[in-house]
């Protein structure tokens, strides 16, 4: 059998190196657009049309279909942004150790997936397998910050799809079939400054207020199926001043929609009043991703992929992930979705992030064979 991941390995690694060495943090529009431009050129050479979905603050998103496409109904989603700040690529650029392990910012989450998708399509075109005309690819630039601007494109294009394949990376021989929902809040508290020694009675401590709120928010963790984390705090001006301001960032996770609604309500309730008289509380943010649990249609899609895996000696299992992805949106809408179809590695979002190079081939071949098999399936909803 033809294997593009072996035949074109040198070009594949050159492209991977090029996009890993281009910083593309979610807040770096120029960087995300630079990665997008590299991919646009590659897709154009294969005969694809690229619709650039312009953004002002974040990087642009790309919607890609072949010039010969006819009603594409298989949607592949991958993000171009990373969690790493500017300068990371210069500080620790792309490397390969022993021909086996690749490192560099975003190599695993999820720049290798970009290369996997491109070469998957290239292989199908070379073979002249007609499924390349049925595939649409959506590349977004804000997944790591909750897909705020790309969400409506994801939902719009997924609505036409019989299957959505999220090629987020994987930790092992697992495919993600469920994910927790989540949200983010920003809390800002105003108090009143005063000298801590000379006139403490004239001050109102915003930090004191924040302390009460952190304890109450974290107590919500005693309830099943939910997580609350105050992950960042700041406030105050000097040790001898009653703090006039305090801020924090809060992350929430939940397993079901009902738990999500309860949790959102509870957070708002706790922050709707002051524990210390005279403080003012401002809350922004909310739920960013719904919870997703694979339904029957998604599990039929999983089964199709699992069978293709067996032919490649891959024993794939379904897993539940605490982290969110764009699969939360499409899965929650009831569109057959499977996630974790990207290459294998680990330590995402950390300096020690790594990619097992061999898995680029294994998961690439799985994606090729999955697309071919999908070509024969009219729908999973019956
Ligand atoms: Zn990711």
Helix/strand/pairing class, anyone? alpha+beta
Nearest-integer average pLDDT? 97
Please tally the β strands and state the result.
17
Domain count: 2
Distance between the termini: 33 Å
Key attributes of the depicted protein:
382 residues, alpha+beta, Aminopeptidase, Alpha-Beta Plaits, six-stranded mixed β-sheet, four-stranded antiparallel β-sheet, 11 helices, elongated, binds zinc ion
Can you tell me about this structure?
It is a single chain. The chain has 382 residues and is an alpha+beta fold. It is built from eleven helices and 17 strands. A six-stranded mixed sheet has the order 1-2-6-3-7-15, with helices on both faces. A hairpin with a 7-residue loop joins strand 1 and strand 2. The mean pLDDT is 97. The structure holds zinc ion. The site of zinc ion has 5 residues, from helix 5.
List the helices and strands and how they pair.
Elements: H1 4-7, H2 9-20, H3 29-45, E1 48-53, E2 61-66, E3 74-79, H4 88-91, E4 95-97, E5 101-103, H5 107-126, E6 135-140, H6 151-158, E7 163-166, E8 174-179, E9 181-190, H7 206-219, E10 226-235, E11 245-254, H8 257-270, E12 280-289, E13 292-293, H9 296-311, E14 317-321, H10 327-332, E15 337-339, E16 345-346, E17 354-356, H11 357-374
Zinc ion binds next to helix 5.
Summarize the structure.
The chain contains eleven helices and 17 strands. It has helices spanning 4-7, 9-20, 29-45, 88-91, 107-126, 151-158, 206-219, 257-270, 296-311, 327-332, 357-374; strands at residues 48-53, 61-66, 74-79, 95-97, 101-103, 135-140, 163-166, 174-179, 181-190, 226-235, 245-254, 280-289, 292-293, 317-321, 337-339, 345-346, 354-356.
């Amino acid at each position: 059998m033809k294997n593009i991941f072996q035949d074109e390995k040198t070009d594949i690694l050159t492209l991977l190196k090029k996009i890993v060495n281009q910083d593309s943090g979610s807040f770096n529009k120029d960087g995300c657009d630079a990665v997008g431009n590299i991919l646009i050129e590659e897709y154009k050479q294969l005969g694809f049309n690229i619709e650039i979905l312009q953004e002002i603050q974040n990087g642009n998103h790309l919607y890609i279909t072949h010039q010969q496409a006819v009603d594409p109904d298989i949607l592949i989603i991958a993000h171009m942004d990373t969690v790493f700040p500017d300068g990371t690529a210069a500080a620790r650029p792309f490397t390969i150790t022993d021909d086996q392990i690749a490192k560099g910012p975003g190599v695993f989450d999820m720049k290798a997936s970009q290369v996997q998708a491109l070469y998957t399509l290239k292989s199908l075109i070379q073979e002249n397998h007609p499924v390349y005309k049925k595939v649409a690819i959506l590349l977004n630039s804000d997944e790591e910050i909750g897909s705020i601007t790309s969400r409506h494109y994801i939902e719009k294009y997924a609505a036409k799809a019989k299957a959505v394949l999220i090629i987020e990376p994987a930790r092992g021989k697992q495919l993600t079939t469920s994910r927790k929902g989540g949200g983010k809040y920003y809390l800002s508290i105003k108090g009143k400054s005063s000298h801590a020694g000379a006139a403490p009675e004239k001050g109102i401590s915003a930090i004191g207020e924040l302390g009460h709120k952190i304890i109450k928010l974290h107590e919500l963790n005693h309830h099943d199926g939910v997580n609350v984390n105050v992950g960042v705090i700041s406030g105050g001006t000097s040790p001898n001043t009653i703090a006039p301001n305090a801020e924090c960032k809060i992350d929430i996770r939940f397993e079901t929609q009902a738990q999500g609604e309860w949790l959102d309500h509870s957070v708002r309730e706790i922050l709707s009043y002051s524990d210390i008289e005279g403080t003012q509380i401002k809350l922004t943010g909310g739920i960013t991703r719904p919870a997703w649990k694979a339904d029957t249609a998604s599990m039929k899609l999983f089964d199709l992929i699992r069978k293709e895996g067996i032919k490649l000696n891959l024993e794939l299992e379904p897993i539940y992930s605490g982290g969110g992805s764009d699969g939360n949106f499409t899965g929650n809408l009831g569109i057959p979705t499977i996630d974790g179809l990207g290459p294998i590695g680990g330590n995402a979002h950390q300096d020690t992030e790594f990619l097992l190079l061999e898995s680029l081939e294994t998961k690439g071949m799985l994606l090729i064979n999955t697309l071919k098999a999908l070509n024969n399936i009219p729908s999973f909803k019956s």
